[in-house]
Amino acid sequence: MSLWLVARLNWARLSQEDRGACIDWITGLGQDPTNCRIEFAVSQDERDRSYRLHLSRFVLDAEGKKQIDHALDDMWAEPVVIPISELPAWLLDAYQKQLVTGGQ
Q1: pLDDT tens for the 104 residues of the chain, in order
Q2: Which of 24, 29, 75, 101 gives 20 to 30 Å between its CA and that of 57?
Q3: Alpha-carbon gap, residue 22 to 39, rounded angstroms
Q4: With contact defined as beta carbons under 8 Å apart, do 45 and 81 qualify?
Q5: Which of these, 76, 75, 70, 33, lies nearest to 55 by C-alpha position?
Q6: How far is CA 73 from CA 23, 67, 68, 69, 76, in A?
Q7: How far is 104 from 87, CA to CA, in rounded Å?
Q8: Inter-residue contact 13 to 5 (CB < 8 Å)
Q9: Run of H or E including 32
Q10: pTM across the whole model
Q11: Is 12 helix (H, G, I), strand (E, B) or coil?
């Protein structure tokens, strides 16, 4: 399988309106945005043109607290890949804005 990168975003760098749409979208896909890293990507399969959302979800311990990877001195996260049927309208526009402004 060969994937093309469609967009790589950081929702903390989105406008307030786009951030709200992004968080609602991720929540609607069954993920808790507060348990995910703020960076995410969308890819498209080269063959069948299907889309995938790529998130990094924090690993929680038995008490529900985020675990630290002491070797990396960072929170431990696991990849999550979610098939999506189509790109939301705000996503490509928000990605273009981040490219133009350098994420500001």
Answers
A1: 688 988 999 988 899 999 999 999 999 999 999 999 999 999 999 889 999 999 999 998 899 889 988 888 888 899 999 999 889 989 888 888 877 776 54
A2: 101
A3: 11
A4: no
A5: 33
A6: 26, 11, 7, 6, 9
A7: 23
A8: no
A9: none
A10: 0.83
A11: helix
